[in-house]
Amino acid sequence: MNLPIIEKFEISQGLVRVLDDRLECAIRFESEKSQAALSLKGEIAYESDPVLTMGLDIESVSSKMILGEPLAEVFRGDGSGEGATVVYNRLEGRLERLDADLSFTEMQFYGFPFLAELSKVLRKQWYRRPTFTDEVVLQLEKNSQSLSLNNMRLIQRDRLIILGDFTVASDDSVSGEIKVGVPIEHKKIIESSVKAGVFSTAKDGYLWESIVLSGKLGDLSDDFTAKVLSRSEVMNHEEKSKSNGELLEGETKSADDAFNELLED
């Protein structure tokens, strides 16, 4: 079976039961270089649909092996998950689908511009390449057309929370939307850098903002920087207008101010 995810593993144990119409098998693969392991189990009928569906347990396998090398430049960690589903076309020798609920003891997430912007706004280098250890879970859906990471929960409670979905198409184009939360105690630091409102919601002890992801692997984009710049421009305009005595939108002159201006003229 030519499954990319098992190419760098060696068979350590195997059990095959021969029945009249099918084989029942359970095979364990282990890595010589790490603690990573895979357990593949299922039934193979002698005469049936060429597409096989089998169960897969994943133990401490690197994101590079699970997601592929380009995406491992965005997500880096070792994932585990029981009860994953592998759909394999044995005639064409290709993986048709892999569905897995994965958890990670630790994950680094990087590459998007919003992380560099957060680092500037919060004045901490940690945000450029954050490491999550409190909770890291996601649902992997991989097929020939795309790879999706759904219901992501990347949580480092005292610094950053990222929730949402992320998809990479076959041409390496990226799409998705996430919610980013930072502890509300950072509010004063944020508002000293940018206009209040860059984070649109305050809830459960965090300031939240939605971010749209785009671009391609190797050239990732998002809309957070544009939001920060637009807010900063508003803040700078307001400060400049106030220093020049100009009215901001929604303000009105008092009667005394208007009378004093007439006297000055």
Query: What does the average pLDDT come to?
Result: 85
CA(first)-CA(last) distance: 90 Å
Beta-strand share of residues:
over 45%
Low-confidence stretches: 234-256, 258-265
| Secondary structure category | alpha+beta
Order of helices and strands: EEEEHEEHEEEEEHEEEHH
The radius of gyration over CA amounts to 26 Å
Q: Share of helix among residues?
A: 10-25%
Strand runs, count: 14
Largest sheet: 14 strands, antiparallel
Number of domains: 1
Give the overall shape, derived from the CA principal axes: elongated
What's the helix count?
Answer: 5
Write up what this structure looks like.
With about 260 residues, the chain is an alpha+beta fold. It has one domain (about 5-265). About 20% of the residues lie in helices and about 50% in strands. The protein contains five helices and 14 strands. It has helices at about 65, 115-120, 185-195, 225-245, 255-265; strands spanning about 10-20, 20-30, 35-45, 50-60, 75-90, 95-110, 130, 135-145, 145-155, 160-170, 175-185, 200-205, 205-215, 220. Strands 1, 2, 3, 4, 5, 6, 7, 8, 9, 10, 11, 12, 13 and 14 form a 14-stranded antiparallel sheet that branches. A hairpin with a 2-residue loop joins strand 8 and strand 9 (about 145-155). The longest helix has 20 residues, at about 225-245. It is elongated. It starts with 9 loop residues before the first strand and ends with a helix.
